[in-house]
Design a protein that fits this description.
25% helix, three-stranded parallel sheet, alpha/beta
Length: 92
């Protein structure tokens, strides 16, 4: 799949939102795409683990951690689990 964010914004401006560039890259992939699965959690990553244990089938997990910096929601073990189960990416 080859596309540019600007082209998507032009074509789907009424249905698309672009995230501010506040995210850091900690993985091996700089560009990824897929159907999105969303989670809202707060200082507990057990639901993140449960979702990443499922087959990812190229999907992207987007986690809203409520802004807390007191709990790591994804570390090396969950990142490896995501890769093993074929998730395209994880955004926290």
């Amino acid at each position: 799949m080859d596309f540019k964010t600007t082209d998507l914004c032009d074509e789907f401006s009424d249905r698309l939102q672009v995230a501010e560039p506040i995210f850091g890259d900690y993985g091996g992939e700089v560009i990824f795409s897929g159907l999105i699965v969303t989670l809202k959690v707060f200082e507990d990553n057990s639901l993140v683990r449960a979702v990443l244990e499922e087959p990812g089938d190229g999907r992207v997990l987007v986690v809203d951690g409520g802004g807390s910096m007191r709990c790591a929601l994804v570390g090396d073990q969950l990142a490896e689990l995501a890769e093993d189960n074929e998730w395209a990416g994880v955004i926290v």
